[in-house]
Amino acid sequence: MSTPALFGKSRVLEAQIDEFLDKVAEGGIYFQRGIELLLEQGVVGETERKLEQLIALKERANELRRAVVNTLYSEMLIPDFRGDVLRLLSHLYGLLDATKNGFQELLIGYHEAIAGAAAVVEVKSLVAVVAQSLQEAVLGARAFFRRPEAVRDHINLIRVYEAEADAIALRLKKALFASERPLDRKLLARDALAVIDGLADRAEEISDELSILAIKRVL
Amino acid sequence: MASLVFLSSGLFLGWTLGANDASNVFGSAVGSRMLRFSTAALLCSLFVVIGAVTAGAGAAGGLGELGTINALAGAFTTALGAAITMTWMTRAGLPASTTQAVVGAIVGWNWFSGSITDLSQLARIVATWVLSPLLAALFAAGLHRLAVAAIRRSRPHLLRLDANIRLGLILAGVFGSYSLGANNIGNVMGVFVNASPFGELHVAGLVSLSGEQQLFLLGGIAIAVGVYTYSRRVMMTVGGSLMTLSPLAALVVVVANALVLFVFSSPQLSALAVSLGLPPIPLIPVSSSQAVIGAVLGIGLLQGSRGVRQIRWGVLGRIASGWLTTPVIAALVSFVLLFVVQNVFGQQVYRPVAYQLSPPALVRLAEVRIPTEALAMDRQPVVGALRFRSLLRRQARLEPAQEQRLLQIAEIRPLSIHPQGLEALEAGSLPPAYRQAVAELAGRSFLHPWQLADALAARSPLWSLPQGAPAAARKRLDARLAVVLDTFSVSPPSPRAPAGPAALRAA
User: Fold this and answer.
1) What ipTM does this complex have?
2) Cα(B259)–Cα(B245) distance, integer angstroms
3) For residue A70, with 0-12 CB atoms within 10 Å meaning exposed, 13-18 middle and 19 or more buried, which class applies?
4) CA B118 to CA B120: how far, in whole Å?
5) Cβ-based neighbours of B142, under 8 Å, separated by 6 or more
6) How many CB pairs lie under 8 A apart between chains A and B?
7) CB atoms A78 and B162 under 8 Å
8) For A75-107, how does the pLDDT look when each residue is reduced to its tens digit (9 = 90+)?
9) How far, in whole angstroms, is CA B205 from its chain's centroid?
10) Which member of A6, A145, A149 has the closest CB to residue B157?
11) Cα dist. B363→B357, B455, B488, B503 in Å?
């Protein structure tokens, strides 16, 4: 379907970008809810449904990303920001992909390390902080498109959440290795924590990208 | 056909203007690939022609006041002098402006023909060279502030903002093209206005084009050809360098440039300024390239010390030096070319104008309250305005305005309303009602053009205008009177007048 001229094209693209950002934000929520289910109930049908939802989200986000980039280049829109938008969408897509992959790995390989963890509350708070950093990355990207001067606030929050996630992960790892668990379980649990904490690091990478883009965008 | 050959230098000048200056209105849009070249070229050509034909008279008149080039070969040579200066300076990598080249070339013609250069008009023109970049800088700074505040308030999506800027660039480009046509056609065809080979043209009783408008149409088409054939490369270069600005800043630059061109070409705006008690805006062709540079500077200065550091002051110095070098070089080139065309090719490059303080002229001067006590009657006509003024100043010191009025009254052009001339008028473009009044004067002779004008006004109200009549109506009537004067001149000007440099020496 060909897009209508000038303003029509822009509106369609705006809607596509908004939908793409919605999918990334939804990914963060499903990830958090999925880990909570994993911690509380183990690998059950509901937990696996979260993985399916994440896979569907990722596929739709990929379609949207391709469509946006194609239109931007074929219609010669935002010539000075095309490359930046392409890079930002790719990073956000990478974050969603990492979220899905992380949850998939936790579900397949690490569920035993996570399930019945001694510090369930601490792990849940780690996941909550990581999910917040994801949401802030999405909000920062939205601000880049509409209110570039507000990007700075979101960047700051991402950095705070990432630092908090690192602190919680460190506490959890120390407690883990101080426990009486077998070494193989300790290593498995440590890797599971690294997978969760790694998502906040990716969100921070996006914040670095956003800080440069925001400077370019501010009038 | 010969007329078209003479117009060719003006058309060449128009082509160079289209090739170079179209980039000032559509360069940023095409260079940033926000608009296709074919769309930009079509819009630019169309609106340059519309601007030239409908609103070109204002600024073209501004150059006419500087020097009244009264022979077609002279107009050809003057335009050629300006075009050669432009080409040479551009090739040498020196900053050049068509406006400044044309002004210099006209001064060169005045110098060669022994005509008086209106220094007050020259001062006004020079003032606009400084004023137009300053005004563009002010417009750009103000517009940029307003645009940024509006965007911060409405918070449009990046894509919506892009679409709006794209539309803005198209609209600003259209406005800029119209203003470019209206303002800069004076550069291209201004020198031909007083030597126009065209009469009035009526197309199917629907469209009526004066001789001046036909000239401007031709000039507009020449500019359009320049846009289509050569502006692409310039647009890509200028647009590319302009894109160091944000797209919003590029849009602001184009709008500021268009506004400056519009300000210096709109009689309505000038009349509004007068009605508000302000001095009239001089209607003079200004350089769009310099307006663009002024606008970029305005945006740079708006950013404070960061912006000031980014400005290349050396480039600004080179541009300012162009204000001096371009007109001087053009005046010299024009003078040399006029000498060659007159003496090598035997063409009449100016019609010698003679002056005489005849009894009727002295009476007329007394009527308009110019002191005549110290003035002696001239037994013989004096050829050349400079020489006549020099002789006059030995007798009396008059106010500049009185001196100018005296020159108008003392100008002689012996006329005889003869049957052959009346027949020639029948075939011309003069409307029948106007011809009737001329026919009633059959057999009469006049020494001064104003005597004919008075006699015609006494015969028919069509030949007189009330006080405060619109400038356009006055220009139309002057053009009709010029047709009658040309038709009934008793002694047609000699092809090789002895005046020129010789007259200068005598003066």
Assistant:
1) 0.80
2) 19
3) exposed
4) 6
5) none
6) 52
7) yes
8) 778 877 888 999 999 999 999 999 999 999 888
9) 29
10) A145
11) 10, 16, 24, 28
